[in-house]
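Marked as duplicate of an earlier ticket. Keeping the data here for the record.
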Amino acid sequence: MTFCIGIKVAQGLVGLSDTRVTSGTEYSSAPKTTVIERKRHSMFIMTSGLRSARDKALTYFNELLEAEDKYFSRLYIAVNKFAEQVRRVKNEDQQALEEGGYAFDLTCIIGGQFEEDTEHKLYMLYPEGNWVEAAEDSPYYVIGAPAYGKPILRRVLTYQSSLEIALKLVFLAFDSTRIASNDVGYPVDVVYYEKDSYSLTTKRLEAKDLRPISNWWQNVLKRGVSQMPSDWIRSIIH
């Protein structure tokens, strides 16, 4: 299982991905976020699905960037080119995967800004190679294990939220998922992008770095439950 989240707000982009890789009962750690920066081309790619498909598609894409990056004036062009590599891998590997009892699975969150983009962009790319773009009324994507972190996003996040609030929310969405799923865990990779900066900041955080915040949030929830109005309960228990 995987947890990757990308948020687009007016001020920029933030994202977070876990690094836990599960194989049977064994756990290991591997990055699920790739950052690419070339002059005024800044983008990140987060992936959920088959590790082999991810690695192969990224290898093909990096080769393409070496030859053609100067022709990618907008992020959607790069997204289309990456989608072509995903389809290429699917065509090459799908039959062998199915014979081995696996389905081709690779879903991606891609964000960033290129020199002719009027603003930063955020996309979700499906295994078939088609994509959708985040908008003001739907400013985030979650892939892998999406259900547990969405409630707080839907209650709190708006397109006008600050980047600081967005950073807080990506962690709380991850923390909710980590508690609910053993297949999602530390360390996490965080990406941060300010609009029109053409520069991505990345940071890896371990459990010890965020444990105080996780404990604080748990205590807030406990206090909230104990302080919740209970007039409506009296008709049930009395």
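See parent ticket for discussion. Residues 54 and 160 are 33 Å apart (CA to CA).
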